[in-house]
Amino acid sequence: MKNVNNFFKKKDSSKLYLIIFAILFVLLIVRIFFTGGGTNVANTLIANKTEKKTPIELSFSDVLRRANDIKTMDIQKDNVAIGTLKDGTPYRATITYNPELLEKISKNGATVSINNTDSLWDGVAKWLPILVSALFLFWLLRLMRGGNNGGGITRSLIGQNPTKIVTGKTKTTFKDVAGIDAEKQDLMEVVEFLKNKDKFKTLGARVPRGILLSGEPGTGKTLLARAVAGEANVPFFATSGSDFSGIIVGLGVAKIKEIFELAKRNAPCILFMDEIDAIGQSRSKHTINDNDREQTLNQLLIEMDGFSNETGIIVIAATNRPDMLDAALLRPGRFDRQINIELPNLEGRRDILNLHAKKYKIGEQVDMMNVARGTTGFSGADLENLLNESALHAVRVGHKVVEQSDIEEARDKILMGPVKNRKMRPEDIKLTAYHEAGHAFVGTHYSDITDPIHKATIIPRGRALGMVQHLPIDDKVSMRLDEIRANLSVFLAGRASEEIFFGANKITTGAESDIAMATQLARRSITMAGLSNKIGMVAVNQAQTFGQRIALENASEKTAESVDAEIRNWLDAAYKDAKTLVSKNKATVEKLAKALLDKETLSGEEIREIVSGKKTAKKVTKKSNAKK
Q1: How far does Cα 582 stand from its chain's mean position?
Q2: Are the C-beta atoms of 402 and 606 separated by less than 8 Å?
Q3: For the segment 87-101, what is each residue's pLDDT rounded down to a tens digit?
Q4: What is the pTM of this model?
Q5: How many Cβ atoms sit within 10 Å of the Cβ of residue 35?
Q6: Which of 113, 314, 556, 622 has its CA 20 to 30 A from that of 362?
Q7: Cα distance between residue 402 and residue 619, in whole Å
Q8: Residues 6 or more apart in contact with residue 11 via CB below 8 angstroms
Q9: Number of neighbouring beta carbons within 10 Å of residue 420
C-alpha cells in the first residue's frame, strides 16, 4: 500500500504552468476588450497631465484652418495629435500625415514632434499571443511525454485521482451482510482463492476473473463486494462506470489503463466497478455518436482479457440493468459468473432488520418478524431507512426507545406518504369510512385465502384518504385463481359500499387506485398467466413502444377485443360479488364504519372482533389528532 499512497501524494508541477497560462490568457482577453481605447486613454492622460483644462476635439479641417494658432503638436501613433494652442487651450486631433502641413505649422513658430514609441499596451498586444501560444505548446508537449511524474495528459487534465478510486482494506465482512445467504455462498470461492491459490491449482480449477452482481437498487451489491475484500483481507479498489466518461475524447481509455495498472501493482486485490452499464452498454452497429464510450469499453475488454489468473485480480462489477451490457463483456474469461441479487424474502428481511437494529435502541416489545411481514418488496437499503425513520419519529414524539408504533408510522409514511392535515368535509369523512369498511369486511370474509388484515384507517396520507393494510403470513411466489378472484372482490368492495350506502349517484373518485390495481391484476392473469378459459394459454402482453401504446403484443385486433371483454367480465363479476356481500351484511359494515369514525384507526384484531360479533376487549389504537 506504500506505493499506492505515494501514487496519490505526488504533486504535479504542470499545474503551475496551467496557472501561468490562465493568467496570461486573462491578460490577452483584457487587451482585446481595451485595444480600441488604450492609446486614446493614455494620450488623454498625458494631455490632462500637461494641462488641467479639458482638451478640445479638432477635426483635420480645423487643423488646416487654424494652423497659425497652433503652438505645440505631438504626433502619436494612429495619426493622433495632441498639443496646445497659442492661447493655452489643449487640443486633441486626428490628422492625416502631410509633410507640407507640418512644414507650414513649423514656420508659424509651432513646435512639432513625432512620437513612434510603442505604448505598454502595444507591447503587450504584440508579444502576449506569442507567449501564450508558446507556453501552451510547451505545457502540452510536457504532458504528452508524461512529465516528471509519469502521469501524462490525463492526470494533469482531470487531477491526480481521475476515477475517484476508493482504496485501502475494508473492515466489512460477511457478518455485516444479511438476507442474501445464497449469494454469499457463491462468493466464498473467490475468498478461498484469494486466501489460498494453491488449493485450486492442484485440481487445475480456474477461479472466475470477473463477477457481475445484478439486482434491484439497494439490494447490497456494493456491500457484498466490500465484504469479499474484507473476508479475504486484500486491498479494495472501488470506482464507478460514470467516472470513465469525460468531455475529452480518449480520457476513458486512459483511465481504464490507470486503474488496472494500479490493481496489478497491488495484487491480489478486489477491483469493484459500480454502475458498469455506463460504459458497458451494447455497441451499436448504426451510430458513431458514442465512439469514445465504445473505445473505453474496448479497452476494458482488453484489460480483462489481458491478465492471467495468477495475478490475483478479481473484478467485481454491479449493475441494475444487465440486459444492456455488451455480449463480449459477459463471455467466459471476462465476467465468468453472474449473480442476481433478489429482494430479500421474509426471513431475509427479518435478518436484515435484526442486523441494522443493533445501531438503534429498539424496544423489547418490537417484533421484527411482524415488521418483516409488513415490508414485502423492501430492499436492504429500504429496511435500514425504515428503522432510521422510526428512530427519527421516536425522537420527534419523545420516546426513549423505538417502539412498535414508531415503526408502524415510519412504514406508513414510506408506503403512503406523510399524514395530511387537510380539512375535510364531514360527508367526505363519512364516505371514506364506509368505503374502507367495505374493504375491511370483504377482506375479513375472504381471510382464509387472502392475506390477513393488519389495520384500517381513515387518516389521509399522500393522495389516499384512507387505507386497509394487509400483512402476508409468508412470501408468495404465485397466486391461485380463487385467490385472484377474492382479491378482485376486495379491491372493488370500497366502491360497492359507497353505492349501497349512499346511492349510485353519490359514488366518488376515491376508488380510482382500487380499480387500477384490480384491472392490472386481471389483465396480467388473463394475458400472461393463461388463467382465462376464453383467451386460453397464450401470451398476449400489452406493450408500450416509444411512448405510443399499441393494442396487444403478438395478438390480432380480434384477440385484443376479446381480452378487453374478458377483463370487463372478471371485474364485473368481482364487483357483483362485493355488492352481494356488503348488501347481506349492511349492519356489520355499518358497525365497522362507525368504529372508524370514532377511532379513525382499527387494528386487525378489532376488525375481526366486530365482524364476528364479539366485543372489543380493549382499545388498541388511540384516536389520532389529525385535523378534519
Answers
A1: 46
A2: no
A3: 778 888 777 666 767
A4: 0.67
A5: 13
A6: 622
A7: 21
A8: 149
A9: 17
